[in-house]
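User: what does the whole thing look like in 3D?
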Amino acid sequence: MTAEFIAKLDVQDLSLKFADKTVLQHINLRIPEHKITAFIGPSGCGKSSLLRSFNRMNELLEDTQTTGEVLLDGKNIYHSEIEVAELRRRVGIVFQKPNPFPHSVYENVAFGLRLQGIKQARQLDELVESALRKAALWDEVRDRLHDSAVNLSGGQQQRLVIARAIAIEPEVLLLDEPASALDPISTLKIEELMYDLKQHYTLVIVTHNMQQAARVSDYTAFLNMGQLIEFDETNKMFTDPSQRATEDYITGRFG
Amino acid sequence: MLRNWFRQGAPWIWLNAGAVAMSLLLVFGLLAFIVVQSIGVFWPSELTGHTGEKLLQYLVNWWQFLSGSSGQAGIFPAILGTVLMVLLMSVLVTPLGVLAAVYLHEYAKEGLLLRLIRVAVHNLAGVPSIVFGVFGLGFFVYYLGGNIDNLFFNDSLPTPTFGTPGLLWVSLTLALLTLPVVIVATEQGLAGIPKNLRLGCFALGATKAEVIWKIVLPQASPAMVTALMLAIARAAGEVAPLVFVGVVKSVSELPLSSDFPYLQLQQKITSLSMHIYDAGLQSPDAQRAEPLVFASALVLITLIFILNLLAYRLRKRLALRYRNRPLPE
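Assistant: Here's the predicted 3D structure for the full assembly of 584 residues, as structure tokens:
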């Protein structure tokens, strides 16, 4: 359980309540830098909520109450002096269902850049192209940059959303079941993409798919009923878990 | 056999279809009636004469009716008055209604107070329009207008400038009258914006103001135009409340002039609805007036139709620019 790495995110005694319902209880977890960490667990175990607590998305959804700390590079993101918009620029998120804006492909990627105050056309062009290349979408959309993004296929839309998120150079990228609404080929592309991205970013992925977690992640956290059951290197976790519950879940005996 | 007919819901469908047919019949019947009544009004009555000449005379008569001043039994001042008061109302009510809707939907916290405000706004839409007229006279004309006169037009007192009914107060009263419509329709537009679009915007490091400005308002713009269409249709037909605040049956001077400031906001106006009421009920010569009433009604309907058509095209362009088709499953 005590792996040696540099922690990008350090979760300390984090608890979360939606209205009166407890979602997360006393989570302690360190997310390694420039690695892919996967969160697995049965539906409703709190893994998506934990993910969203890393850039304070939860508070946009419901009446939430958070206690404990999440340190990003050693600084508590729940401190009252933290600017939430700036935090979300540093910690990007991609949701389960692709949500491109109803603008052109180009404007989707440029959106976050414009928010950052980048206005020069040439600079925007370069940054948009580079983000689309990183998201492995450039070759497919280079001739239709100014077509509406809603005309892209679901898999392309999801990669567009990833391009949009990485265009503003976040430090951490959170992926909430990014491939669960996609077909196998699109899923494969997203997984390859994640592998490329981890050199520059710290990635955290929530997934329902055990094989996916085993394939793409370096570290895995298993959550159940709002508690962190086990966290370890993915290899170890999938071959020799130390907790009985983890083994049962991974081998499909419950969940 | 009959039992089966009932079980399949056939009577139900017939009732539904019947209701639709009845509604269509009434609406198109009304339109057709007005068209039939008014189309022949200006056909020259002389029996002699070439058909071509008659047609020319017919068009000339129409033109004289549309462009003539009140003194010449024309309705140009009424058309101008209707257009001006409706446009000015749109300029006043749209920003106010949209801002209020954005506050109610985006910023105000859900709770008892917000619920009360919503109920109040909905009820405001049901207040009889004459009440707005009385309020307009008391508050806008006497109070606001009187104070404006005291502050800026002291020289010309005791002759009032703004302290008397006029175009500005007509438009303000109409704006107040249609405000709930605009607020409610805009709020519905705001509620229809997919949550994941907002979240996507927040996720890129946007502040709440940026989310509203860059995503929410553009997405809701077609709804705002719809709101305005409803408001215009309602406003153009009002007579009773406007009699208090500046609509009269005939005017000697138009509210537009060639000198600065071009628009005479303190000027009294006349409107098509007023003209219809006046010509229809107050005219000493009912025989002669009745056809003109129908002709005016036709003009009013056409005017509202044109305004709606413009709004519809604007909405289509906005919807196309910010199109948001659902994802293919």
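In plain terms: Chain B has one domain: 85-321. Chain B touches chain A through 23 residues (CB under 8 Å).
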